[in-house]
Design a protein that fits this description.
Elements (H helix, E strand, L loop, with lengths): L1 E3 L5 E2 L5 E3 L19 E7 L5 E5 L7 E5 L5 E5 L9 E9 H7 L4 H6 L3 E7 L8 E4 L3 E11 L5 E5 L5 E6 L3 E8 L2 E13 L4 E8 L12 E5 L5 E5 H5 L3 E4 L1 E8 L5 E4 L15 E2 L3 E8 L11 E4 L3 E3 L5 E3 L8 E4 L2 E10 L3 E6 L10 E2 L6
Parallel strand pairs: 1-3, 4-10, 11-18, 20-28
Antiparallel strand pairs: 2-3, 4-7, 5-6, 5-8, 8-9, 11-14, 12-13, 12-15, 15-16, 15-17, 16-19, 20-23, 21-22, 21-25, 24-27, 25-26, 28-29, 28-30
C-alpha cells in the first residue's frame, strides 16, 4: 500500500510507504538503504533521478540495490550470492520509472538503453573504496549513441581523458544509447582493460599521430540542442590509425614485512587507492598502484614524472621510502611498471628494495596493454 503526503519519502509506523504527490514509489523489493559497514561498491548519484543498479545487464536479473537521488555517497549492500569473487563488471543503472515500466515485461529494453553504464570492480581482498560517480549530465531527452564493432572496451569522458564519465561501451556492442542533457560536449574516448595476471585496470587513450594536434588526446566536440538531439559514434573510427598513449605509470609493491602497509606519494596523510579499490598491502601480498601523468597544455600529458617522497607506512607512522630517503628523486615513465619489495619488522624498521637491472639501475617493465 502507498499513500501520498507532503514531505520526504518515508515509511510510516505501519510499514506504509509515504511519497510526495506525483512521485513514483520505490519498486517493491529494491533496497535503497545505505550500508557503510557492509558494502560492495560506493556510488554517488549527481542527478535528480532515483535509480536501480544491476551487476551486468538488467535482463540477467542481478539487482544489487537502489540509489537515491541524493548527491551523497551511497553504499550498496554486499550480497554474498552476487559479490563472491574478485571481478570487473558492468554497472548498469536505470531509472525507477524505466524499471517499473520495462523490467518485468521487457528487460532487454533496459539492456539497450540504460540510464548509464559504468565500468566497475569488486575486490574480495580490498576495501573497495573507489566511488563511482554518475554525472549530472545523464538523464535528458538528448542521445549519444555508440556502435562498438571493435574488441576494445571504451569509456566516454567529457572535457578531458580524466573528465566525468558519460557512459561505457563494451567491445562488440551496438546501438548503445545514453540519454543526456543538452549543452556543449567534448568527448574523449578512454580504453580500459582489467589484467587478471596483475590485478590492475589499465587505461590508455588514443592520440593524434600527425599534424598540429600530434600527441594530443583525441576528442570530439559537439553540442546537443533543439536542432541536434542525437550524436552517433563508431568506435572503429577511434582506433583506426590512432596511437594509443598510456595515461599512468605503475608501481608494484610486494609486502614481505610483518605489518600491513599503505602507499603514500606526498607529504599528506592520504593513502593511494588502486584502480580495483585496494588500499592496504597485507603481509605476503602485492598491490599495483597507478600514478596518473600530469596534464599539460592542449590535452597533452607528461611522458614521465620525477618524484621524491614515495613511501609505505604503518598506522603508527613507521615508514620505508622507496628511494631510500625522503629527498632522493626517481623518474617513472608512463606505460611502465616499477617493482619494490618491503621487508622488516616493527622492531627493526622497514626497508624498500627495488627490482633493478644488472647494472643496478631501476628496472622498468613495459606494460603491453594490447595483449592483455
Amino acid at each position: 500500500m502507498t499513500v501520498t503526503a507532503k514531505g520526504d519519502n518515508a515509511t510510516d509506523t505501519w510499514g506504509i510507504q509515504v511519497v510526495e504527490v506525483g512521485e513514483t514509489p520505490d519498486p517493491v523489493g529494491i533496497d535503497f538503504s545505505s550500508y557503510p559497514s557492509n558494502y560492495a561498491i560506493q556510488v554517488k548519484n549527481n542527478t535528480s533521478n532515483k535509480l536501480v543498479a544491476f551487476k551486468g545487464m538488467p535482463s540477467q536479473g542481478q539487482i544489487i540495490g537502489g540509489i537515491p537521488a541524493s548527491g551523497n555517497t551511497h553504499y550498496i549492500k554486499k550480497d554474498p550470492t552476487i559479490f563472491s569473487t574478485t571481478t570487473d563488471f558492468l554497472l548498469y543503472v536505470v531509472t525507477v520509472d524505466d524499471y517499473n515500466t520495462y523490467y518485468k515485461s521487457s528487460p532487454e529494453t533496459l539492456d539497450a538503453s540504460p540510464f548509464t553504464i559504468l565500468y566497475a570492480f569488486y575486490n574480495t581482498l580490498a576495501d573497495n573504496e573507489e566511488v563511482y560517480n554518475i554525472s549530472k549530465k545523464i538523464g535528458g531527452e538528448y542521445q549519444i549513441v555508440i556502435n562498438n564493432g571493435t574488441d576494445y572496451n571504451v569509456e566516454l569522458r567529457n572535457m578531458g581523458p580524466e573528465g566525468e564519465i558519460i557512459g561505457y561501451s563494451k567491445g562488440q556492442s551496438y546501438e548503445r544509447v545514453f540519454h543526456v542533457t543538452d549543452g556543449e560536449y567534448m568527448i574523449f574516448p578512454v580504453f580500459r582493460k582489467y589484467d587478471r595476471n596483475t590485478g590492475e585496470i589499465y587505461s590508455v587513450y588514443p592520440t593524434y599521430s600527425s599534424g598540429d594536434l600530434a600527441g594530443e588526446a583525441k576528442s570530439y566536440e559537439f553540442s546537443l540542442d533543439s536542432e541536434t538531439k542525437t550524436r552517433q559514434f563508431q568506435v572503429r573510427d577511434w582506433v583506426s590509425g590512432i596511437n594509443f598513449t598510456p595515461s599512468a605509470t605503475y608501481i608494484k609493491i610486494t609486502n614481505n614485512a610483518d605489518q600491513g602497509l599503505q602507499f603514500f606519494t606526498g607529504a599528506d596523510s592520504t593513502p593511494v587507492i588502486t584502480s580495483t579499490g585496494g588500499k592496504r598491502i597485507n603481509t605476503d601480498k602485492s598491490l599495483i598502484y597507478a600514478i596518473n601523468m600530469q596534464k599539460l597544455a592542449s590535452n597533452k600529458y607528461e611522458e614521465s614524472v620525477t618524484k621524491a617522497g614515495y613511501r609505505v607506512e604503518t598506522n603508527r607512522g613507521q615508514k620505508a621510502y622507496l628511494a631510500g630517503d625522503a629527498t632522493t628523486t626517481v623518474e617513472y615513465r608512463a606505460g611502465y611498471m616499477y617493482t619494490y619489495t618491503i621487508t622488516g619488522t616493527a622492531e627493526t624498521g622497514y626497508t624498500a628494495t627495488p627490482v633493478t637491472e644488472a647494472d643496478g639501475t631501476l628496472k622498468a617493465q613495459e606494460v603491453d596493454w594490447s595483449n592483455m
